[in-house]
Amino acid sequence: MEQYILLIMTLITINIILAVSLNVINGLMGYLSLGHAGFMAIGAYTSAILTTQYNFPIFISVIIGAILAGFFGFLIGFPTLRLKGDYLAIVTLGFGEIIRIIILNMTITGGAKGYPGIPGIKGLNGFLIGLGFAIVTVIVITNIALSAEGRALLSIRENEIAAESMGVNITRYKIKAFIIGSLFAGLAGGLYAHLIQYVKPDNFNLYKTVDILLMVVLGGSGSITGSILAAIALTSISELLREFSEYRMLVYPLMLIILMLVRPNGILGKKEITDFISFKKKRGV
Amino acid sequence: MFIQQLINGLSLGSIYALIALGYTMVYGILKLINFAHGEIYMIGTYIGYYFFRMTFVLGLAKKYAVNSKIAVNFLDKQEIISQNPKLLMKYIANNFNEFGIIKDSNFRKSITNVAVEQAKGLKHMSEFINSNSIIIFLLLLIVSMFLTALVGIIIEKLAYKPLRNASRISVLLTALGVSIFIQNAGIKIFGGDPKAFPQLIPSKFYNITDNILISNHQIIIIFVSIILMILLEIIVHYTKVGKAMRAVSFDKSTAELMGIDVNKIISFTFAIGSALAAAAGILIGMRFNKIDPLMGMMPGIKAFVAAVLGGIGSIPGAVIGGLIMGISESLVVGYISSTYRDAIAFAILIVILLIKPSGIFGKNVKEKV
User: Fold this and answer.
1) Membrane-spanning residues where (chain A) (predicted)?
2) pTM confidence score
3) Contact B171 A260 (CB under 8 A)
């Protein structure tokens, strides 16, 4: 039982990394990326192969996987960022699917049967590693969001043309956002592979991306604390309702639709939870 | 080999073109990528399947006194229908318990009698269906197109209409949600296992030269697609509704000022797009005989790529894009590997968006502040 709870808690930390990293692209920059699961797959498979076949320490292989995923984010981001809105969403969806299909057809990845026998990070250690990485992710991304870079991303979200005419180098920031997003997605993928100890291409299909997307949207696009809370809530809820798991993919899209109809900015909107808990007295404007 | 793949690609491509037309028309009017369009295609196919089952299989079963369970079972294993009556009888006799006609298996004689009766009835049924196959096929096509058009309108009214003025991302996310919802609802309602679509018109192959084969299904697909496209062209260019559609896609608010009921036109566009998708579904169902709730996903994405390739918003573009997609896919299957058939769609998409994001027939739109 204790092991089970630790497993769920580790899963929560991984989902926090995923949601917060997708929030950089979706929330801060305001672009819809549908390829997050693909980047996750790169990290997962790279680190899995490195630890199993080349005896790398788990920690190192997870980081290498993340870097490789970030590199792919760069490769994909670089040429496609001339695109806007819907087109970019579709292209990221396409890249995610291509990555999955290529993994499906490679021999080193085990193809459709998946890749079993990955050495695991179990119990408390696993949770602590996951928590450590999650904290690092949140700190890095919060810092980005609060820095000049973050404001540049926000300006792209609010009005791209205005941002460009104010001298924001849009392409550079878009690529940066994509690299950061995919880097952390790869990190989460590596952790996931070592937590579950078995990966298969189906783990990283469009449904997985929608899972992550729902966390971002539910918490509020642009709100980092919102993403964290939504990741915790959705992971625990879907574990608690495991016996109804066949209805999950019926409920999730419905939630997404209702959310978009009722509260398109998510529960927290663009606000952080710290905005509500203020220790200082509010000054009049 | 090349010509053969070209023919296969042409028939596959006309299916993609039919689906792509729905994408392109909806995008032209609402600037919305209707992710759920592939699912509408799936629903259209299932409507055809259930319509055939309700009216023809169960109706004829009643007429010829065939047990309804046997009749439905034979719909799913239809290849046995045309085989010789003795095998058919044996099959029925062996499966009596499954069909629940006679519980006590001691009555061997009565079993044989009933089996003969049932076999006779089934034979009448299959004869009736075979002799009227073309009429039934057209009926299926029209009914499914009509009902799917209604489904399309309902989806638009429920999911997209409340979001008319919302941001592009929330509309896109809603469309994605609708798509995944319908897929999973389909698994719950229709069952996740594939169903056998009735092969109304028995497939025949014609030799053109020694190693080039063309099946009658491929000819039917191409022929029906061409007719539907001509009809669409007539509707869009020579009717009042078509004129209104073009006006709305050109400038929605001005069209509204001119007295066009924009909501009505949007519904009409969804209806036409859905009807075309349903036709594509029936044609594919007849050709490949197998339908399942997730069948809409890949064709939906590929048709979307086709629409982008041809220039989204452009009707001839969708047709050309669909044909290019179909042909390149069958060439990949023929020359490289069938496992990469889905990757080619995305590869084409990425290349086209990098070289000419507006597509072949697309207009370059300047950005305005």
Assistant:
1) 6-25, 32-50, 56-75, 87-108, 128-148, 175-192, 212-237, 249-268
2) 0.86
3) yes
